[in-house]
Design brief:
The protein is an alpha+beta fold and 214 residues long. It has three helices and seven strands. It has a seven-stranded antiparallel β-sheet, covered by helices on one side. The longest helix is centred in the last third of the chain and has 22 residues. The chain starts with 20 loop residues before the first helix and ends in a 10-residue tail after the last helix.
Length: 214
Amino acid sequence: MSDEQEKPTTTTSTTTEETTPKEEAAAGGEEEEKVKEEESTATFEPVVKLEEVEVKSGEEDEEVVCSFRSKLFTFGETLLDKGTGNKTWKERGIGDARILRHREHQRLRFLMRQEKTMKVIANHALDPRIVLEPNAGSDRSWVWSCFDFSEGELEEKVFALRFSNSEVATEFKEKYVACQKEMEALLAGEDKPDEKGEAGEAAAALEGLKTGEE
């Protein structure tokens, strides 16, 4: 036998702790709960309190005779062409083209607001002298000139109104012309339903109409 002794071999094993997905999810949930608990629940009063203010549209004393969804255009100079005399068609907006009748003195006007913003883009009395003409031969668009008050002062403007189809365009013209005849009779002093014979006030409508902005 050899004098050398066999030395036992020893092995050391290290173990690492592994976390399962469930344990990680549970830990994450605990952290979320801690964050929620730390959220502030304090309430703050406004420094300035604003009172509710009633806004008038200027249409409170009027009734809608008819309404047609359409797109409005104006013929005039752009900002870049101002003073040059170069005029082009500009889109004013899409909305409901309406004819309104005042409940007291019965005068009629054409009013159109741009949808969403509700900005007034056309506002004029139904002068019997206004003539609706086809726009470049189109059967769904009308062109006319009038004294308009949509910008806050009387201005002579040329409008074009385009509808979805020829049927709607024809119906609009029929309503417009019928209301012009009613306005003409009103200005002539003829008796109308609920009319007090105030032709002078109706005539003043042709000088200018004010509409409140929202």
